[in-house]
């Protein structure tokens, strides 16, 4: 999938607690911006809070993030979402979603990352991705048929989660739907007993370039540099 390249980075950066918390806080803020500050009526926010709690993010930090994003906290700030398109080394399409309070600063810095060492190049690649809703979820009944679960939830497609991403004794699925049905499909899965860990808008690659191992390593290093920028919220790359 377009985000699977990040697994190696997650393992290497597991000890960078502050950075992980920052990313989780940003996801909460994006969820509030898109669907409101009430988890009961915002499935994406509920999923983001659940993941944050699992990573030991404090309740106070979560509440401050919600207040900040909704404009009600003492340090309320207005964020905007900016998307950059281009290619990694070896012409792998990539879309970079940023959450920023200073578009000029973020735009300049992300462009510099693309230009560093002449590795990446800006360019229009949006047509190489499908904009969809993505829900990742697990169920305690490992015998559930994923296709049936997707049909009952009104999802358009489903694929199994990688074994290393699923807790022992559970089944995991990655459900895709139209962007307008993301909240409804998420809530239907939750009502059916699925534990939702991700509920978000997603850019799904339509095709994947063939790369050698050395080329893949160069691409992953470039993507890590992008993802390490504090304003970068999501990086979608056509890399398996």
TrEMBL record:
List the SUPFAM superfamilies hit by this protein, alphabetically. YebC-like
Origin: domain of life: Bacteria
| TACO1/YebC-like N-terminal domain boundaries | 13-71
Give the molecular function GO annotations.
DNA binding
Name any GO cellular component annotation: cytoplasm
Entry's Pfam families? TACO1_YebC_N (PF20772), Transcrip_reg (PF01709)
Q: Which UniProt keywords apply?
A: DNA-binding, Transcription, Transcription regulation
This protein's record includes keyword Lipid biosynthesis:
no
Q: Does Endoplasmic reticulum appear among the keywords?
A: no
| Stored InterPro entries | Integrase-like_N (IPR017856), TACO1_YebC-like_2nd/3rd_dom (IPR048300), TACO1_YebC_N (IPR049083), Transcrip_reg_TACO1-like (IPR002876), Transcrip_reg_TACO1-like_dom3 (IPR026564), YebC-like (IPR029072)
Q: Give all residue intervals belonging to the TACO1/YebC-like second and third domain.
A: 79-237
Family the UniProt entry places it in: Belongs to the TACO1 family.
Q: Can you say what this protein is called?
A: YebC/PmpR family DNA-binding transcriptional regulator
Upper lineage is: Bacteria, Pseudomonadati, Verrucomicrobiota, Verrucomicrobiia, Verrucomicrobiales
């Amino acid at each position: 999938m377009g985000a699977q390249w990040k697994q190696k980075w997650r393992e290497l950066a597991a000890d960078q607690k502050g950075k992980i918390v920052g990313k989780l806080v940003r996801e909460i803020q994006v969820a509030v911006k898109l669907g409101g500050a009430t988890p009961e009526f915002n499935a994406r926010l509920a999923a983001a809070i659940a993941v944050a709690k699992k990573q030991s993010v404090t309740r106070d930090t979560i509440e401050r993030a919600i207040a900040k994003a909704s404009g009600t906290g003492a340090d309320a700030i207005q964020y905007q979402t900016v998307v950059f398109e281009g290619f990694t080394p070896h012409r792998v399409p990539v879309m970079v979603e940023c959450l920023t309070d200073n578009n000029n600063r973020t735009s300049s810095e992300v462009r510099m990352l693309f230009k560093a060492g002449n590795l990446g190049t800006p360019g229009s690649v949006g047509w190489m991705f499908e904009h969809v809703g993505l829900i990742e979820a697990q169920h305690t009944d490992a015998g559930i048929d994923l296709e049936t679960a997707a049909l009952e939830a009104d999802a358009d497609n489903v694929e199994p989660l990688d074994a290393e991403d699923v807790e022992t004794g559970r089944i995991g699925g990655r459900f895709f739907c139209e962007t307008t049905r993301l909240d409804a499909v998420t809530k239907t899965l939750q009502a059916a007993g699925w534990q939702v860990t991700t509920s978000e808008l997603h850019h799904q690659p339509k095709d994947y370039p063939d790369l050698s191992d050395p080329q893949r390593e160069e691409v992953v290093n470039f993507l890590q540099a992008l993802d390490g920028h504090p304003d970068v919220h999501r990086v979608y790359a056509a890399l398996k």
